[in-house]
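Help needed: design a sequence for this.
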């Protein structure tokens, strides 16, 4: 009831200012002021002001706004975590499988090769095996590990 009275008073005051502006030959300004002053009374007549007043003083409505806000915050939080992790579960699983295929199985193990140092003690009964000529398998494994 008070909101309707205030809106009617604001509309009446605005229409009065519009009449004064029209009297001063500022017709465009008077028309704009009249349009703005008719908005509050229009809101009263459509029932928007009553609905807003009922909503503003309703505990049920405020709890509803709180629940909507909590849902919004949870949604934003999950989106932020998903972006940091790099996508959905299926995308992460596919990326992990692709990463496993890119690295050679023995690439992380150190490859010393045969006869790494001449000072190592060898059994006396075994002859020294010939070193393989130009073996680049360990270099290839390192390059594959780094995606080159």
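Sure. Designed sequence:
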């Amino acid at each position: 009831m008070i909101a309707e009275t205030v809106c009617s008073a604001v509309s009446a005051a605005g229409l009065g200012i519009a009449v004064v502006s029209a009297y001063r030959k500022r017709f465009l300004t008077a028309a704009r002021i009249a349009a703005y002053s008719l908005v509050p009374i229009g809101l009263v007549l459509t029932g928007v002001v009553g609905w807003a007043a009922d909503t503003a003083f309703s505990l049920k409505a405020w709890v509803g706004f709180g629940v909507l806000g909590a849902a919004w915050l949870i949604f934003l939080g999950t989106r932020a975590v998903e972006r940091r992790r790099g996508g959905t579960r299926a995308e992460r699983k596919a990326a992990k499988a692709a990463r496993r295929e890119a690295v050679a199985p023995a690439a992380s193990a150190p490859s010393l090769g045969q006869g790494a140092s001449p000072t190592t003690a060898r059994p006396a009964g075994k002859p020294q095996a010939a070193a393989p000529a130009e073996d680049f398998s360990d270099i290839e494994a390192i390059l594959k590990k780094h995606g080159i």
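The chain has a mean pLDDT of 80.
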